[in-house]
Design brief:
Layout (H helix, E strand, L loop, with lengths): L1 E2 L5 E3 L9 H9 L6 E2 L9 H9 L2 E2 L14 H7 L2 H13 L18
Parallel strand pairs: 3-4
Antiparallel strand pairs: 1-2
Length: 113
C-alpha cells in the first residue's frame, strides 16, 4: 500500500500469500511520480529495484539492517521510524471492514465411471 503524507491510501494491491512482498512492491512502484519518496521496511530491501527507481527519480529508502551494504543518512533513518505507523493505521482501517470469516465451497471433481 502507498499512502500520501496525510496517511490516505493512494495505491494498493492484493497479492497471493505465496508471492514475495518485494514482488508486489515492484508492481506498486511502477508509474510513481518523479521526485517521490516511498519509505518501506527492511523486508523490501532490493538494491536492483532501488537503482532502477533512482533512474526514474523515485527514492525507495528501505529500512536497513545493521549489516547492510548501503546505509541511509540519519535523517532518513529518523523518518523511517514514523512512516510505517501511517501504513499500519491505513491497513487496519481498511481490513476492519472485511468480514471476519469467508465461507467457501470447493467443487468436487467428477470421476468417469
Amino acid at each position: 500500500m502507498i499512502v500520501n503524507r496525510q496517511g490516505m491510501p493512494i495505491r494498493f494491491a492484493f497479492a497471493p500469500g505465496s508471492d514475495a512482498h518485494i514482488k508486489a512492491c515492484g508492481k506498486l512502484t511502477l508509474g510513481s511520480p518523479a521526485d517521490s519518496i516511498l519509505y518501506v521496511d527492511a523486508a523490501y530491501t532490493n538494491y536492483k529495484l532501488e537503482d532502477q527507481l533512482r533512474e526514474e527519480r523515485v527514492q525507495l529508502p528501505s529500512a536497513r539492517r545493521r549489516n547492510a551494504r548501503r546505509q541511509h543518512p540519519r535523517e532518513i533513518v529518523y523518518v523511517q521510524k514514523y512512516r510505517p505507523k501511517r501504513i499500519e493505521t491505513a491497513d487496519s482501517q481498511i481490513t476492519r471492514r472485511f468480514p471476519k470469516t469467508i465461507a467457501t465451497v470447493t467443487a468436487r471433481a467428477q470421476t468417469q465411471g
